[in-house]
Design goal:
9 strands; 2-enoyl-CoA Hydratase, Chain A, domain 1; three-stranded mixed beta sheet; six-stranded mixed beta sheet; alpha/beta
């Protein structure tokens, strides 16, 4: 797959998808989303692939959807205060993230550094998450009035813990994420790739038909309990908030436009420290 934003390789029965936008901490631009989605489809349709590994280059796994405005994408509309337009935009992002959950083959997230916002959601949508000891998880976007629409977190770590993280936008370290059940195991950062691939190859010893059936069984059970409807309901509720302009959100965007995104993020973060 020839795309600099996403690298694709196979190692026996394991397909490896590498997100490759390290200079932006792998923030998801429209171009990256398209290439990433294509890679997921390729892996899921490859008859020689039993297990998929999702990893990233650089010091962070993924900091969510790109809000810098540096790469809006050709022909991509801006929705401002259009609630229906915002819903359409968020729905596309939701479909992309949920592809990790609903693809037929198990997918293992290999996480280093920050997995925040949509990056945290994606790590939770994956079947297994292996984290480096320097990993950080959370959804801080509520601090500038953009609550995350995924709402997968309570299904993974429970409602009490999810509410606390979502309401404050705090980040947690790898040890806390393991305690909460958000991730499966922790390894040293310099062993992350090797440990993840060893784990994937061990899983690939299982018959692919059995793996697919097991995953489908889990997913059908979750849907019977209302998982898919909960994702849609969350999207329907938060889309109007994205289109609205809260006082905090307006000041955040004004500071970002004037002084840059890093300054705006630091301004908001220091209020919680």
């Amino acid at each position: 797959m020839a795309n600099d934003l996403v690298l694709y390789e196979t190692d026996d029965k394991v397909s490896i998808i590498t997100v490759n936008r390290p200079e932006k901490l792998n923030a998801i631009s429209p171009a990256l989303l398209s290439a990433w989605w294509d890679a997921l489809r390729t892996a899921d349709s490859d008859s020689n692939t039993s297990v998929v590994v999702l990893r990233s280059e650089g010091r962070s796994f993924c900091v969510g959807f790109d809000i810098s405005g540096d790469d809006p994408g050709e022909g991509v509309p801006t929705y401002a205060h259009d609630a229906l337009g915002r819903h359409e935009m968020l729905a596309e992002g939701m479909d992309f993230m949920m592809m990790h959950w609903y693809m037929r083959k198990p997918i293992i997230a290999s996480v280093q550094g920050h997995a925040v916002g949509g990056g945290c959601e994606i790590a939770m949508f994956c079947d297994i998450t292996i984290a480096a000891s320097n990993a950080k998880f959370g959804e801080p976007e509520i601090r500038f009035s953009d609550p995350g629409p995924g709402l997968v977190m309570p299904w993974i770590i429970g409602f009490k813990r999810a509410r606390e993280l979502a309401y404050f936008g705090d980040l947690i370290d790898a040890e806390t994420a393991l305690e909460f059940g958000m991730i499966n195991r922790i390894v040293p950062p310099d062993e992350l790739r090797e440990a993840t691939l060893a784990y994937a190859h061990r899983m690939a010893l299982i018959a692919p038909e059995a793996l697919r059936a097991a995953k489908l069984g889990f997913n059908r059970g979750a849907d019977a309990a209302g998982f898919r409807m909960a994702m849609q309901a969350g999207l329907d509720v938060v889309a109007p908030v994205y289109a609205a302009e809260t006082e905090v959100g307006q000041e955040f965007r004004e500071r970002a436009a004037k002084d840059g995104l890093k300054v705006a993020l630091a301004w908001r973060r220091q209020q919680f420290d």
